[in-house]
Amino acid sequence: HLEHFPQLIQLSISHNHLVDIRLLNRLRSIETLNLSHNLIDSIDSLKPLQNLVMLNISNNNISSIAIL
């Protein structure tokens, strides 16, 4: 239901055992995103988030941050 929050600029979803974050690419206005302490192994789906200025991906299973 992220489409109901098109103007969301800050989101913290740390410590949630998240694996798949593909739906987050709908948050086109997001500026601050905390994804720390999850089970994420890829952040490729975040590439469309052009307004993103702060991203916390610490303590995940990410092997590449090439899209940044």
Automatic annotation (TrEMBL):
InterPro entries: Leu-rich_rpt, Leu-rich_rpt_4, LRR_dom_sf, SDS22/Internalin_LRR. It holds the Pfam family LRR_1. Keywords: Leucine-rich repeat, Repeat. It comes from the Eukaryota. PROSITE patterns: LRR (PS51450). Coiled coil: none annotated. The keyword Transmembrane helix does not apply. This is Uncharacterized protein. It comes from Adineta steineri.
